[in-house]
Amino acid sequence: MRHLGARISRIAPGRVHIVLPARPEVTQQNGYFHAGATSAIADSAGGYAAYTLFPEGADVLTVEYKINLLAPAVGDHIEAVGTVLKSGRTLTVCQLEVYGVREEDGSRTLVAHGQQTLIRVGQTATER
């Protein structure tokens, strides 16, 4: 995320927001945010959202995710929102949303939507 210039902007139990400012390094030939950058922050937002519900000592890995690109990703930044739909002992399912945000008027356009499955790895002291 550091390489892309993304940062976490909000954290709550089961929900994380990640913001990625517009700059040439994360856009494609038409000036839209690149699908790879859009997908990367969506994947991380879901992973961190799941992580907020895991016990201490556990870690998270993405098992799979599917993302639909709904509109060209434009704006001053994009914001990914990962929300836990179901947190299980082993697998967690998250909803992924990415919005294009224009700072001048505060408009938000849904540019991508997806779903993700994550696996909890590592053991806590009580599980050993």
From TrEMBL:
GO terms for molecular function: fatty acyl-CoA hydrolase activity. Signal peptide: none annotated. InterPro entries: ACOT13, HotDog_dom_sf, PAAI_dom, Thioestr_dom. Coiled coil: none annotated. Pfam families: 4HBT (PF03061). The keyword Hydrolase applies. Residues 30-99 form the Thioesterase domain. Keywords: Hydrolase. Belongs to the thioesterase PaaI family. This is DUF4442 domain-containing protein. It comes from Streptomyces venezuelae.
